[in-house]
UniProtKB/TrEMBL annotation:
<keyword id="KW-1133">Transmembrane helix</keyword>
<keyword id="KW-0812">Transmembrane</keyword>
<keyword id="KW-1003">Cell membrane</keyword>
<dbReference type="GO" id="GO:0032153">
    <property type="term" value="C:cell division site"/>
</dbReference>
<keyword id="KW-0472">Membrane</keyword>
<protein>
    <recommendedName>
        <fullName>ABC3 transporter permease C-terminal domain-containing protein</fullName>
    </recommendedName>
</protein>
<feature type="transmembrane region" description="Helical">
    <location>
        <begin position="170"/>
        <end position="195"/>
    </location>
</feature>
<dbReference type="InterPro" id="IPR003838">
    <property type="entry name" value="ABC3_permease_C"/>
</dbReference>
<feature type="transmembrane region" description="Helical">
    <location>
        <begin position="223"/>
        <end position="244"/>
    </location>
</feature>
<dbReference type="GO" id="GO:0005886">
    <property type="term" value="C:plasma membrane"/>
</dbReference>
<feature type="transmembrane region" description="Helical">
    <location>
        <begin position="25"/>
        <end position="47"/>
    </location>
</feature>
<dbReference type="GO" id="GO:0051301">
    <property type="term" value="P:cell division"/>
</dbReference>
<dbReference type="Pfam" id="PF02687">
    <property type="entry name" value="FtsX"/>
</dbReference>
<feature type="domain" description="ABC3 transporter permease C-terminal">
    <location>
        <begin position="175"/>
        <end position="289"/>
    </location>
</feature>
<dbReference type="InterPro" id="IPR004513">
    <property type="entry name" value="FtsX"/>
</dbReference>
<feature type="transmembrane region" description="Helical">
    <location>
        <begin position="265"/>
        <end position="287"/>
    </location>
</feature>
Amino acid sequence: MNIPFRKADGPPIQVVPPSGATAHLVTATAFAMAVLAVVAIAATLAAHRLSARWSSELARSSTITILAPPETMQQQTAAALQAAQTTPGVLLARVLSEQEQQGLLAPWLGTDLALDLLPVPNVIVMEETLDGPDTMGLRLRLAGEAPDALYDDHTRWRRPMMAVAERLRLVGYGALGLITLCVAAMVTLAARAALSANRQVVETLRLIGARDSYIASAFVQRFAWRALVGAAMGSVLAGALIALSPDVARDAAFAAQLRPSGLEWLWIGLVPLIAGAVAYISTRIAAARMLANAAET
């Protein structure tokens, strides 16, 4: 006779012996995978911020480069600046100073650079509106008034960098997917090993009327709880290390800090819950299959 256990008989988890290396292995695996998951999430969020930063900084900026003979350099620079300032869609246009040009070239040529010894072009930087300027009209004016001036909207630079940022995000998503699969596989193996090691307990429970769903719940709850605890500890450790990391990228032009900000921390808080859910589903599927196979034999 198959009689289901009543609630008064206690929770199912109490019928499983608490000892066993598999339970500790699940905790350790969840801990390690949570650390990796938090790092992957932080890297993915950083790539997203990097993509947004590059998009905002480059999409609304452009430059005009004037590389003219010395005798016409000032004249063409003034004409190009006037054309830029009077073009609809341009908020601000100015010529880079000699000090700013030296600062841009310093990483490659050093700080003791004499610009008058090199054919360094004059550069006009522009800030644009959201709709952007009339690029065709601006190019036509430059061709007529400053033939040695070249307008650059940074498209050739923006597209590769945006592609790199998007690939970084895809790598982060892929890493999270692999981590989830590893957790599911490890918990499944641990659950099957625990069921095999406690075969006599399972047979005894069946003899006294326990249903397979009750027996499976005992293992499911134990492994899901172990995974939740291990993932919580790993998430706290990884989150603390990331939070205490030096903020070296705040003043960098094209760098993204790894540390999440604001509501982004909620994604890290979801790691233990997801790990527990994955362990719960994996253990339930593994236990149901093993118990069904055992009942047929």
